[in-house]
Design a protein that fits this description.
The complex is a heterodimer of chains A (115) and B (114). Chain A is an all-beta fold. Chain A is 0% helix and 50% strand. Chain B has 114 residues and is mainly beta. Classes of the chains: A mainly beta (115), B mainly beta (114).
Chain lengths: 115, 114
């Protein structure tokens, strides 16, 4: 079964507007971490934001915020005030349990910011 | 700055000619990973090291091998590259421990097989 599902292959957003990228996950481990990475066309994977399963509050990092709905097993990324430099592929990923070092990635969402 | 470095950034090899990709890190992390990423796909984990303990993914082809001579360096050896092995290869690191830390990625090596 797919552990991370990203249902939006591609999205367009107008500069300065907000965009929400969907991510749902599947795990039976009570201890897990959820991550979002940005991958520009250059190829490097840039860590954006992290949400732990026991965190009470939604994570925020600058213009990035994570809408964590534990009961629905979703961890959507919100990018506020989009900039042209936000155009990239975005991956949602999960690490399950403190003894498992592997990341499970979703298929990714390509975001294109229009001027 | 502490970082993950991959050399070379671009590698061209011939069909069947062995190739080695390298990764080094200044983060002093215990865990190192190699991923293969094909165009418009998610990264696929090939293997990872926890210290010197090698962990191979079940579906990683035998054609792919890895070496970690010390904490700082890790190598990916492709013994007989095929056209299907053309991809971006990403190295990543993470610290050990109970905290669910993020993985730190290098810039990747883009492999072309002719």
């Amino acid at each position: 079964a797919q552990k991370i599902t990203q249902t939006q292959p591609g999205m367009f957003v107008q500069e300065k507007e907000a965009v929400t990228l969907d991510c749902t996950y599947d795990t039976s481990d009570p201890s897990y971490g959820l991550f979002w990475y940005k991958q520009p066309s250059s190829g490097e994977m840039i860590f954006l934001i992290y949400q732990g399963s026991y965190d009470q509050q939604n994570a925020t990092e600058g213009r990035y915020s994570l809408n964590f709905q534990k009961a629905r097993k979703s961890a959507n990324l919100v990018i506020s005030a989009s900039q042209l430099g936000d155009s990239a592929m975005y991956f949602c990923a999960m690490r399950e349990g403190v003894n498992d070092y592997k990341l499970s990635f979703g298929a990714g969402t390509t975001v294109t910011v229009r001027a | 700055d502490a970082m993950v470095i991959q050399n070379p950034r671009y590698q061209v090899t011939q069909f069947g000619k062995p190739v080695t990709l390298s990764c080094s890190q200044t983060l002093n992390h215990n865990v190192m990973y190699w991923y293969q990423q094909k165009s418009s796909q998610a990264p696929k984990l090939l293997f990872h090291y926890y210290d010197k303990d090698f962990n191979n993914e079940a579906d990683t082809p035998d054609n792919f091998q890895s070496r970690r001579p010390n904490t700082s360096f890790c190598f990916l050896d492709i013994r007989s590259p095929g056209l299907g092995d053309a991809a971006m290869y990403l190295c990543a690191t993470s610290p050990q421990g109970p905290v669910l830390d993020e993985q730190f990625f290098g810039p990747g090596t883009r492999l072309t097989v002719l």
